[in-house]
Amino acid sequence: MGEAIKNRYEFVVLFDVENGNPNGDPDSGNMPRIDPESGLGLVTDVCLKRKIRNYVETVKEDAKGYKIYIKEDVPLNRSDREACESLGITETEDKKVTEALKKLKKSDKDVDIKLRDYMCDNFYDIRTFGAVMTTFVKASLNCGQVRGPVQLGFARSIDPIVSQEVTITRVAITTEKDAENKSTEMGRKNIVPYGLYRVEGYISANLARKVTGFSEEDLDLLWEAIINMFENDHSAARGKMAVRELIVFKHSKELGDCPAYKLFDAVEVRKKEEIEYPRKYQDYTVQIHEEMIPDSVEMKRMI
Amino acid sequence: MGIGVKVKVWGDYALFSRPEMKVERCSYDVMTPSAARGILEAIYWHPGLKWVIDKIYVKNPIRFTSVRRNEVKSKISASNVLQVYNGADKPLYLSTKEDIVQRASLILCDVCYIIEAHFEMTNKANASDNPGKFKDIIMRRLKRGECYHMPYFGCREFPAQFCLCEEKEIHTSYDTVPEKDLGFMLYDMDYSNPDEIQPMFFRAVMRKGVLDLRNCEVIR
User: Coiled coil located at which positions (chain B) (predicted)?
Assistant: First the structure.
């Protein structure tokens, strides 16, 4: 693993959706998330982190140091506990394992920190986003919380979105009983005809250096994952999604050179004036006001 | 009294969880003193200083919105990690299909506060440290927008933008409201005994949009 990053970063990601549902709202029957007051579409931070994890898992295939802790679609065989022999613990019940470990803890006070570092070294998502661990030593490691350097906000659409309900039919009937009295089943899809979303993120070099060891190589992988986060995520529900811009601001120092909002304000995304209903990316203009960015901050458009 | 600072903080969303409603999280009406301390510590902290929050000005009207998300319900089990660490060959991950739970959060939107705070020196300060030095560092960071990590309003997905407050006369959305009782709120956690961290509460009364925390009675 390389050395931890030495610069603070901020980044802006623009992504769009065409005839799809970027992020369903469990509160309203899986309709696209909408800010009820402004009508702007929302995509939660955790939704995007999921895509980043999935991309890293796909390309790295659990290579050493790039495992993913929070997985989707895996068979669950954690009950398969045969593994304590290396510790000299043969019990298979959780309680007894814990008891045996408690003894170990007395002999090794730093066991929590060692385990945290082990997790950070092996798991890309923990190194990047952090995680919460239940620790052995009460109140140590700040209640087991590991803050990762990468922090994401909610994504919001530039303009209000409309959520359209599309009713579909299928000819295959699920149950025998239903098949007796009907020949089609109706289903519903919720789509956004078009939406351009913007999300802002932050990377703290201090947390990388002092806690998780998030390195330059990890950073490159993060950019790659952000750029490609929808490329391996096609599904019937998502429609056409793509990352359109990844604008990265690299500060010259660990602590940064200027407030984050000043950099974000420098990125102006606007619907073209003659367009009434945006339906494609070309209906928008992205303008970066370079005069608002301090000279010491390096700006890079990654796409 | 140490040396005071005024910091303006704002953001799109905030979630200061009420401890009594933290499964389906519900935010307090305003920022808690402990969240304000966390924001200041994200900007600058040193073992030699301790932040004390004096006042919180509520600049924007209190408004809520709700977000329901798929969340993972379990934490990483340290004993599992230890087994793998020691060479055991077993899977180490969480399956979101299995461990999923849907939780709603009632969050504040479009918030803006001014935190008035001061710091006190602790006995962990180095011999060369003095309040003036700390003050200079803090002011420099506030002016340049430097921070240790990006501060946030309660949860990390709700980043808090910050700047030095230059307003001479601070107006709030509640200038004309003489008194608004917000009930008991979390003041902070008492970390003096690391084996037994205790919450502390206070009776929050917002007077003309200002939560005055000086001389407030803290209840354990």
Answer: none
